């Protein structure tokens, strides 16, 4: 179980923005990678970390679109990355390693949600393959660069989607059960949280700490596979079709949604803590029933270790 999964009662809250969290942060000379950094939460995260002085490598499928979105933002580099394609992940990682730079922060932000069933070339269910396995492979490939930084952090985007029942280590590909898009999404988000637990366990003795994040409920690119009726059912839009921003009920804008990512990536309050699931710029409480915090199974160290081993097998990788 996540022994440190206890709120710190920080000075931040649901309405806190990423810029506020980063106000006194100096990342000059630091290198950061943000997957999906050209739109939505990733775009806001990239802008804020750049403003704090970091060199940010934006890893995206559509480089031209990301370049346009970040025009004029200093210290940004753009590289192509398709998480569903292991060869693309390997190319990206090899390119970064060839630069001989250390990596201070790795933000695993990109993702997909509630898609129709699709599979990668190895037969893995697509949401799991994209949201978890692609990022898992990327972290493994970049581990030496994270070690070289001396003190580094990995932040992965989970969500309250992890509360959707159905994580099945024995049938991750949905081969033995009917595919259900929300169950598959929830499984991938549980995997993201468990990844942080196991990554932190492996890295903490050498200065690598890992965290998972619930950013909040935000209407953005992640909802591109949802119908208008589905979005309406979440009570996320007002009568004019504009996204409702009410942080007290977890409905946030991108600036508020990126705050916990930036907090996990930079906060000195987490200097000696890792492997935790965070929300509202704080460590989330363990919660069995209510729609807040983190379910115990998503930060369970034994389940995290089993998933890590299975992910190595599925990826054909050696452990770090």
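-> sequence recovered:
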């Amino acid at each position: 179980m996540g022994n440190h999964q206890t709120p710190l009662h920080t000075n931040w809250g649901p309405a806190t923005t990423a810029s506020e969290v980063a106000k006194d942060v100096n990342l000059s000379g630091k290198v950061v990678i943000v997957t999906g950094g050209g739109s939505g939460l990733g775009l806001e995260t990239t802008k804020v970390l750049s403003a704090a002085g970091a060199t940010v490598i934006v890893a995206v499928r559509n480089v031209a679109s990301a370049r346009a979105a970040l025009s004029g933002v200093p210290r940004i580099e753009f590289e192509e990355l398709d998480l569903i394609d292991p060869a693309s992940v390997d190319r990206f990682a090899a390119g970064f390693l060839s630069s001989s730079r250390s990596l201070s922060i790795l933000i695993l932000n990109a993702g997909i949600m509630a898609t129709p069933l699709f599979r990668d070339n190895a037969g893995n269910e697509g949401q799991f393959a994209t949201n978890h396995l692609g990022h898992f492979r990327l972290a493994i490939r970049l581990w030496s660069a994270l070690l070289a930084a001396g003190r580094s952090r990995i932040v992965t985007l989970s969500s309250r989607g992890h509360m959707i029942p159905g994580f099945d280590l024995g049938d991750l590909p949905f081969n033995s059960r009917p595919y259900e898009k929300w169950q598959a999404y929830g499984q991938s988000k549980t995997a993201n949280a468990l990844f942080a637990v196991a990554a932190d366990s492996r890295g903490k003795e050498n200065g690598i700490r890992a965290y998972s994040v619930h950013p909040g409920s935000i209407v953005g690119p992640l909802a591109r596979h949802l119908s208008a009726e589905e979005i309406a059912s979440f009570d996320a839009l007002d009568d004019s079709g504009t996204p409702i921003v009410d942080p007290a009920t977890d409905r946030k804008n991108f600036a508020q949604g990126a705050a916990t990512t930036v907090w996990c990536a930079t906060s000195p309050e987490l200097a000696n803590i890792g492997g935790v699931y965070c929300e509202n710029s704080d460590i989330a409480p363990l919660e069995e029933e209510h729609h807040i915090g983190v379910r115990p199974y998503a930060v369970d160290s034994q389940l995290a270790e089993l998933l890590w081993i299975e992910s190595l097998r599925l990826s054909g990788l050696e452990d770090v």
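Residues 7 and 283 are 5 Å apart (CA to CA).
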